[in-house]
Amino acid sequence: MRLGRHELTLEPRQALPPGYTVLIAAGAIVVALALSSFLFVSADASVLGAYRSIFAYAFLNPLGLTATLQRAIYLLFCTFAFLVPLRAGLWNIGLPGQVFAGALAAFAVPFALRGGDTQASFASGGLIILMVVAAAAAGAAVGGFAGVLRARFQVNEILVTMMLNSIMFWLVAYMIKEGGPFMSPTGEGESFALPPGLRAPLWRGIPFTALLVVAAAVLLDLLFAKTALGYRIRALGENPAAARYGGIIPVMLSLIVFVLGGAFAGVAGYHAFTAIPGVYKIAGNYGFYGDLAFYGLISALIARGSALGAVPIAVLFAGLSLGARFAQGALHLPFGVDYALLGLLMMTFVGSHVLYTFRFALRRTTAEVLRPVAPELPEA
Amino acid sequence: MWELLARSLEASTIFLFAALGELVNQRSGVLNVGLEGLMLFGGTAAFITTQATGSYPLGFLAGLAVGGLLGLAHGFFSISLRGDQVVSGMGLWILSFGLTTYLGSPYTGPLGLSRIPAVFGLSPFFLLGVVLVTAVWLVLFRTAPGLAVRSAGENPAAAEASGIPVGGIRYLCVVFGGVLAGLSGATYTLSYNPVWNYNFLMGWGFVSLALVFFSMWNPWILLAGASLFGIMWQLSLSPELVLPGVLSRYVWRMVPFAITIPILTLISTSWFRTRWGLTKPEALGRPYAKG
Prior knowledge:
Low-confidence stretches of chain A: none
Structural class of chain B: mainly alpha
Structural class of chain A: mainly alpha
Largest sheet of chain B: 2 strands, antiparallel
CATH architecture of chain B: Orthogonal Bundle
Number of strands of chain A: 5
CATH architecture of the domain at 49-310 in chain A: Orthogonal Bundle
CATH topology of the domain at 49-310 in chain A: ABC transporter involved in vitamin B12 uptake, BtuC
Strand order of the largest sheet of chain B: 1-2
Strand order of the largest sheet of chain A: 1-2-5
Number of helices of chain B: 12
Helix content of chain B: over 70%
Helix content of chain A: 55-70%
CATH class of the domain at 49-310 in chain A: Mainly Alpha
Shape of chain A: globular
Largest sheet of chain A: 3 strands, antiparallel
CATH topology of chain B: ABC transporter involved in vitamin B12 uptake, BtuC
Oligomer: heterodimer
Shape of chain B: globular
Distance between the termini of chain B: 58 Å
Strand content of chain A: 5-15%
Largest interface: A-B, 50 and 46 residues
């Protein structure tokens, strides 16, 4: 674009200045929050009052803060489930399906052990571990299925994971509704309640999955920074052609990232339905947790693939989505402020994405810079 | 039985419109994986407009306009800024998914107008669909502008060298794709199932996207595929018509999605690619930098 004697151009960026990533990430979030003020204005609510109500509930109210941390754990598992394949350049949008698979597998443990007599009492730490492992394995299986197809036949992973989301959504409906195997004995379109002995142990309202998620964040960053496997995944993601030239075989890697990602989503499913106080069942509105998983997708994108960097972002998103629901009730806003915020965050991320790969440059146009030069040498 | 078939063909128009638009923009080299989002937004805009004004034409117009605008946004990001087309498409999908849930929720429920009348027992949109397929085929494969579109998707540098404005053509195609996605969403919310519900599509857009790959970028195969999926979809909604009492209805709902995966796998095998798959636009999904 020409501006007088200058030209404004987009130029590919060679390297990112230090701190720039953090700055853009923060900028994208702030812009999305600013845009969401339109939602409050259109609903005739006080903008400042709405923000105050969201943040005060999510981060200052003790009840709200606990709920924020519980949700942040869920979002972080979802973040990692998306982040690992993303580092290899693959899009795992099958988070909801893998979450549902994890939830079903976790509930299958008490269901199988007591042959369907779901009200029997349990008390065993071993069984809880078994539930986590089962959830991770189920998520990994669903993710791995998409990974195998991608690795072996180059099938588009976005389409396959999306189809798996729909399949798993209806599978859960089959299992918990209309006489399905997991249906609650009272038959209200939800699963049987988890026996109290199998509820995840809590410390001040926070389940033990918090430890798992923090460990996963540290290990993932170490994996990508320090190990050969992490290097291969990154190389594949950043330049598949160069990676192949360098002897990296993409087939196994595509599978590994999807299995690992799926396992994280499976544990997210375990956490959402068996570890949050007050839930302890697959409720009829389980689809909401599937939708919520996409906050994980955005936090992985905004964190630019850094697992530890995603932690504050996921905590913020957890608080925002919870606080938005709270403000919705308190200020009589229309349903779905949390969904709208999800959309706005995605939009500002896409906008900010341009700033990672390009920079705006203002240059004098060449005609002004180079004066006409005489073709002959000047006489001595 | 006739009713079921007519209903199936109406369902298939929703796949058809969206997929036909996507086929055109893929032929020009631009991939839009956010198709479902464009359909959601177009459908919601059409529903709200019709409910507010009581006019079907205004509703359709709103749906087409919103779809076209989102297509334009995708074009700006992927053509002018040369951004990653998957990032932009996914962005449009999640943006639409989130915003329509908020904007549409006060309108949750039935449209409450008399239904759009059928022509000879058939939805008028199916007839429109057949006309559109014919038109797109004629333009793409029998005219000079169609050749320009295809060359922009196969080898943009060569196209540019022969005087074809690649950027402009791609913009036109992406907006056309958006408009048809908007039409598809509007057909859903105004005619096929005039009840607004959050995330009412639940995967129709992604199935449409898969249909474009199945069609090998040929409008006629797309028409056949969309009709087949329309029938399958309708059967999955009311399986009791064919197999009463067999399996839960929830299991049947999985069938169209479950069938999509093996077909996708088949067309991705190297055997299929070498035998049939040469029609894939060579420059699909790759941004083009002039000069």
